[in-house]
Design goal:
17 strands; 53% strand
């Protein structure tokens, strides 16, 4: 995740979160689960250090990662780091992919990316970033709009489908199984990322992820 998305202020009715109760699987039909390889990345001072997916604990100059009890915790604690994320090793230019995971945002986290579809042949480096903000009890924003509020300290299930084509394609975002946004996307060399990414705007920032799954068709 190499570029921040500038939030555009817009008046909109916000959906407040109801916590998921169990793993629900992909949205839509015809999807097959698969298990792409991935690696952990911690960036500091423009340099990225990679760790294997077997890593349970790692710390960089200003960020840390921990995996325990099925939960992955990504944390920034000073501006020595601006990226602690899982980089999925499944590059694609065309085809349909789906990301699923449950996210918990720690209160105080401000303007940090939690999940991304990387890849854009035009301006910028990304197709989609879903970012967390402190307002309204914690708000997720993506695709130029607020998606859900009242999320801090609660598990929120996020599904993102991406139909990539040679001319662009489209993506859709679902919160706890409900479609909240659909938009066109640029063509590019795509892959998923998730964790915590962005210049630290507060004393610390923390995203936790669990039940992360990947699907394709």
């Amino acid at each position: 995740m190499t570029r921040r998305v500038v939030a555009v202020a817009a008046a909109a009715a916000l959906t407040f979160v109801v916590q998921p109760t169990a793993y629900a699987g992909p949205v839509g039909s015809g999807w097959s689960e698969y298990n792409p390889s991935w690696n952990l990345q911690i960036q500091s001072s423009g340099e990225i250090k990679s760790y294997p997916s077997s890593t349970n604990s790692a710390t960089g100059p200003g960020g840390s990662y921990r995996r325990e009890g099925g939960v992955q915790t990504f944390r920034l604690f000073n501006k020595g780091s601006n990226r602690v994320e899982a980089r999925i090793q499944d590059n694609y230019r065309t085809g349909q992919r789906q990301f699923e995971g449950e996210l918990k945002v720690t209160a105080g986290t401000e303007d940090e990316s939690a999940m991304q579809i990387f890849g854009n042949d035009g301006e910028g480096a990304t197709t989609l970033m879903i970012r967390s903000f402190t307002r309204n009890g914690g708000t997720l924003r993506g695709g130029g709009k607020d998606l859900v509020s009242g999320i801090n300290g609660k598990w929120v299930r996020i599904n993102v489908t991406h139909n990539a084509t040679s001319t662009g394609g489209s993506y859709s975002i679902y919160i706890n199984g409900k479609l909240v946004h659909t938009n066109n996307g640029p063509k590019g060399d795509h892959y998923f990322k998730y964790g915590v990414y962005g210049t630290l705007q507060a004393a610390s920032a923390q995203h936790e992820w669990r039940n992360v799954h990947f699907y394709r068709k």
